[in-house]
Each structure stands twice: as C-alpha cells, then as structure tokens.
User: Fold this.
Amino acid sequence: MSTTNALGEILEFHWMMDMLQTVDVGIVVLNSDFEIKVWNGFMEAHSGKLPSEVRGKTLFSLFPDISETWFRRKTKAVFELRIRAFITWEQRPYLFKFRNFRPITGTEPFMYQNISISALVSATGAVDHICMMVYDMTDAASAKKQLLALQVEHSEMTQAAK
Amino acid sequence: MISVLICDDSLVARKQVAKCLPQDWDVAVHFAKDGAEALIALAEGKGQVLLLDLNMPGMDGYQTLKGINEQQLLTKTIIVSGDIQPEAKERVMALGAIDFIQKPVSSADLAAVLRKHNILALAEEQTAEGLDDTLRDCYQEVTNIAMGQAGDHLARIMNVFVKLPIPNVNLIEVSELHMILSDIEMHEETSGVCQGFLGDGISGEALCILSDSSFGDVAKILDIHEAVDDELQLEILMDVASILIGSCLSGFAKQLDMQFRQGQPVVLGQHQSVEDLIKLNKNNWRKTLAIELSYGLEGYNVQCDLVLLFTEDSLETLNSKLAHLLED
Assistant:
C-alpha cells in the first residue's frame, strides 16, 4: 500500500516538474548567494544555456550585465521581509537579453520583460531561496509604443491643421 | 448624514430657507454668503445639496454654477430666487441646476422639490449603506496592526524611525477617488504607483503616493549612491511601493487568515491620463472602501501615502471575516 502511495507521489512530482519545465514563463530559483538552483525550459530555450551549465553558478557570473549592487538591493526586502519585488519593462526593458520570440515578424529586437521576485519559505520557516518569474511583455510593449507614436502623430496633425 | 448648503447674501433669506427644511430631515446645514464661499464649502464636502440664490454681490448664482461645473464639484443645486423670469430658469437649468423654487420659499414647495428629485430618500439610503461604527473601528484596528508591521519592516530594512499615523477608513464615492487621483496628476510634485491584489473573493487596489521631494532622502536611506534621475526615481518609487504595499497587505491578510496575491505594479498616469482611467471605469462601481495611511520618516523629508481600495463586491466577504474577529 505504502509503495503504491510513494510511487503515486513520485509520478505526481514528475508531471509537476514537467509543468514547470514547459510553462511559458521563465522560472529561476536563486539561493542567498545568488547561485542558480532552478532554471526552467523557458529560460533554457531563450538563453541557450542548459540547466547543467548554469546550476550552482552565480547570476552575476553568468550575466555580467546585471549589476550586483542593484540586484542585491532589490532582493534584500524579499529575503528579509518576504515581500514580492517587481521589475517592469517600462522601467527596465529587460533583465536577461533574450531575442524576440518572433524573430521574423516581431518589430522589437529583444524580449521586453516583467519580472516578479518572491520569497520561497523552506520547511524550517526560513527564506533561503528566492524565485524569479520572467514574463514576456514584448507584445504589450510594442502595442504601447505604437499607440504612443500614433498619439504623437495625431497631435502633430491637429497642430498643423490649426 | 447628508449635508445641505444654503447660499444667499441675505441673513434673513438664509434663515428663512433653513426654517423651511423638512423637520424630520436629519441633515447638517451649512451657510455661505456668496458664490466664492459656497464653492469653498462645496469643495470641503459641505453641500451634497445646494440651495442657491441667484442675485448676490461678488460671485452671483450663475457664476457659482459655472464654478461648480469647472471644478467638477458633486452637488445637487436647487435655485431659490426672486427672479422668476423664464429666461433665468432656462439659463440655470442649462448650467446644471436640478430645479427652481420661487422666493419666498415655503416648506411645502421645498419638500415637494426634494421629494421630486429623490433627495429625501438619498439620506436614508446613505445611512443604510454607511459603515457602522463597530465595523469602522474594527477596520481601523486591523489596519493599525498591519501598518505597524509594515512600519516595522520599513524601519528594519531602512534603519529609520517610522512615524505611524492613525488610519482613515471610509466608504468613498467614485467622485472622491477621482479627486485623489487627479490631485496626483495635477501636482507634478507627486508620483503614484497602483497595484491590484486579490484573494478569497476580496479584491482591490493599493495606491502608493510619494511626494517627489522625498526621492533624495529615500535614495539616501536605500543606500543608493547614483544621481537620482527620472529612471531611478521610478525605481525608488516602485521599491518603496512594494515594501509598503507588500507588508501592509500581508499584515492585513494574516489577521483575516487569508492571503492576497499581488499583480504587477503600474505607475499612475504615465501612459494614460488618470481622468481617462476613471472615466472608463465609471460604470463598473459606485463606492469603494478606502483605507488611507500616511507614513513619515523621522529626521527625513519623506512623505508617503498609502491608500487601500476595496471593491464594492468585496465588502460583504470582508465584513463577515471581520465579524469573526469581533466574535473571538
């Protein structure tokens, strides 16, 4: 009886992992030294870096463009206060420079990203890890840019008409 | 309680109008000598109903009506005037008055007009929908504890002493929220971030408003040494907002034995004017429960306001959760 239960749990764990792998959101888990613990399929596909390549390495050694002081400051409250931190594309277009998911018909050269960082509470109640979720916001960003361009054009036209 | 403002340059006329108000009508009566005074009183929320004379020295009744339109003040205006020319009546109705009563006023006339426009019913509806005192007290206490936690969080992460205010709990109308928001937009000295939250059938939005003069000091506190340009300002705003909103909400939720999920924060009015945002939403809701908090940091020039807005349809769930708290 217990073996079937255990087997069931393993099977469940398996498809849950599969889901994390295939979900269309980037998932990165970091420990308090900012070493990468989880790097899901989305991150692998867009960065071209295999999980085996990145696991155990620090975020800053893999992505030297990310400022360490800035990122530590950003995540301090997540570790200490267990609140969520946010990075929006409007402020910082991307954290990871990925190519546009539609390299041919897309108008933007890179992927705009919204990122939320949340605390992962361990079984002991401490926060030893944080989880980063990376969302592709390219469509929203390019729509907003187009809208803005149209507004400018429109106001210029009305100015000219006067 | 509903508020009535009587505006007339003559003391006798003001008293006479006040005497004609229905006896059993539970109202707060305010007076103004001219249009200018009336506009100020209206802006202070002292006149849900305005009884307005037309001919006054200084700002007359017509100008007052124009002023009400320009400032988008929310009031039901009934003209009380001796000038009974059809033209006068037409003009004031075009300017937004809802009715016209001839001077001298009689109790019967006034009652008939008030009844016709459902204003008497308005008062009853308001008392029915208002927050009862125990509940308000409960909201205040829960918020107090939550903001205490948020303050403690801020204090620990920033190493500063946080001055905690008494939270202000109110049911507010769309128009009032409109005032708060357009205030942010009009004053370039303030910036705001809003963030949606929801959980257990309760949903709402948190608004964090930071005065721009605070940025320098906040940067110092957050240990940011770079020059504070526009982009960095935005980032500071976002960071302060997430700390305040995040810890306040989690403190609030914990007491109600629930959890809120937070959406991505959005900077207010960056891409769309606040006016448009509210206009689009106008039909979706009428009232919202607003909890206002304003934080200050001792020794620093930092002023930060946090407003938690709960949607009308969340109130029932929220109230029942609080009721549990009261029972225990």
